[in-house]
Amino acid sequence: xxxxxxxxxxxxxxxxxxxxxVDDAHSLTAFILAAWQVARVLTIHLVEAVLAxxxxxxxxxxxxxxxxxxxxxxxxxxxxxxxxCGPIQWRRRVGRCPHGCETPQVAPLxxxxxxxxxxxxxxxxxxxxxxxxxxxPFATAARLLGWYRGSIVSPQAVWGWVQAAGQRTMEQLQAxxxxxxxxxxxxxxxxxxxxxxAPLLLGADxxxxxxxPEGGQPRGKTAWxxxxxxxxxxxxxxxxxxxxxxxxxxxxxxxxxxxxIDALQPRxxxxxxxxxxxxxxxxVWLSDGARGLWRLYEEQLAAVAVGxxxxxxAVQSRWKGAAAWLDGRTTRARRWFGWARHRLRHGQPxxxxxxxxxxxxxxxxxxxxxxxxxxx
Length: 376
Hints:
Strand content: 15-25%
Helix content: 40-55%
Structural class: alpha/beta
Strand order of the largest sheet: 5-4-3-6-7
Number of strands: 7
Radius of gyration: 31 Å
Largest sheet: 5 strands, mixed
Order of helices and strands: HHHEEHHHHEEEHEHEHHHH
Shape: elongated
């Protein structure tokens, strides 16, 4: 404790009470919680000292955007920000136009720190609140955040942070989509050396998600809407403890949009470029038989990717063919389906397709069955 006493003023009763709590702690839990309070105070002292030092540096004042005159200092003004460790206060220079233009006062140090004029919470504090709100309701996220900081946090504040973060993210996404549409490709995301030679897998589907009937109002009947989702991953290999080599997905990425296939297509392509679709040794598109998804594949991915119908939908369509051709109530239909499923599972579809082609050549096949077989 001597080093702490050497770095903190002895005449600060609040700090000394915290240090005494550490000395008086009996259990490990109490010791850690008491030490955490000391660490928070030390962090605040350190940050405030650095900010005070930076505020004394010479200031390069910008020019007034209205008249072009150089802004002049109006002295030091107080600023306070709520952080993960508690409230942080410092004084910094503010300036105004010498000609009295209606330009708001400017604080160059605030801009250098990335702070907005009326921002009251620090970025890392808001980021933690947004991360909590992904998994729990806003009220619960505010309570957890309050426990961490040691004071009350409003659920409305967490909601506002999420809205602001979402707005910034959407603006960034729209700028990226516009850049890709103009031929400006984004930088590829770094890959681990063992994944450079791994195939790139892409897929998409639609999922139903519950929405409130009115934004911000919990009352009313739940409204279900379809969200288009795209998944991208690298297919790697993993050796289990028993020595067996199994497939495993790495660097999984997700894109989603509340819209149609046309809205999903540029988002999938943007993320595919980030994931190295142009340099991957093999690219595979995997999805069900939805026409919109395969239109996305034909228009955007067919030149660089191999398209595959997923196994479960392929088996489902083969059963439709067996039921239409051999009557699904018969043992012969079930036996042929079992054989066809085995062939498909082991990558041998030729015999299955040949049987279906032969079935179309049989004149006694009913028209309804012929339509089903042709659709397959």
